[in-house]
Amino acid sequence: KNIVALQEVDSTNEEAKRQAQCGAPDGSVFLAERQTGGKGRLGRTWESPAGTGIWFSVLLRPSLVPSEISSITLLAGIAVCRGIRSVTGCAAKLKWPNDVVIGSRKVCGILTEMAAEIERVEYVVLGIGINANTEAFPAKLAEKATSLRIEAGSAFPRAAILRAVLKELESLLLNAKAGSAFQEILDEYKFLCVSLNRRVGFFWNGEQQTGMAVDVSPSGELIVERDGGGRISINAGEVVV
Ligand code: BTN
């Protein structure tokens, strides 16, 4: 397997994309002790100091069309939850679309990027950042963020968590490739998803709105019954539970 471990890089997603252009194979993993330009979703930055986090990206070359990529994002969230649960026993869940939370606080973020033409996906980069052994967060973040160490009360070897997540990801991807049981994956996602059957706030049609999250569609959209009436699907942006 192609696993590249770096002491420091701008962003493992950027490194994965650069290596993808140079022909790195499907399944390559890019891991960094520290990122100087870690990226979050929606153009945010992602704090990536050395020592406590697990910052990595997985390069995939799936034979999918662009609209099918959201299934890979759902899959990645499930793999992280399973991996965290198996090593730490923490009840990791998912906040739609793909924040991994313990209780109401975020322990991991996932940033999916892809290069595609209209008909064909060239590659997908799954960027995963897990707050593993952070002892405490600055007051401003502490309300929203947590770490495995804070939740479990003890530190974990980062390699064990990485290995468990990669193992789960590989088995989910192999099953998906074999065409087996997409319904099962969707059911597991919904089971883990804390946003469902909750009131959510979201930005839609240029306005801030509220409603009840009632389902997740096979393509990973959140289905919401708007307070203003009508059922809509949301496929990007920020949802606040
Ligand atoms: C989010 O906003 O929740 C997504 C955060 C994703 C962070 C990870 S860390 C490894 C990879 N490299 C990056 O620059 N971002 C992702």
The general outline is globular
Radius of gyration over alpha carbons?
17 Å
What percent of residues are in strands? 25-35%
Associated small molecules:
biotin
Q: Which CATH first-tier class of the largest domain would you pick? A: Alpha Beta
Count of alpha and pi helical runs: 6
Count of the domains: 2
Q: In total, how many beta strands?
A: 12
Assigned CATH architecture of the largest domain? 2-Layer Sandwich
- Strand adjacency order, main sheet: 1-2-3-7-6-5-4
N-end to C-end Cα span: 39 Å
**What name is given to the CATH topology of the largest domain?**
BirA Bifunctional Protein, domain 2
Name the CATH superfamily assignment of the largest domain.
Answer: Bira Bifunctional Protein, Domain 2
What share of residues is helical? 25-40%
The average pLDDT is 92
Return residue spans where pLDDT drops below 50 for at least 5 consecutive residues.
none
What kind of sheet is the major sheet? Answer: 7 strands, mixed
Structural class: alpha+beta
Keywords: ATP-binding, Biotin, DNA-binding, Ligase, Nucleotide-binding, Repressor, Transcription, Transcription regulation
Catalytic activity: biotin + L-lysyl-[protein] + ATP = N(6)-biotinyl-L-lysyl-[protein] + AMP + diphosphate + H(+)
Domain BPL/LPL catalytic: 1-177
EC number: 6.3.4.15
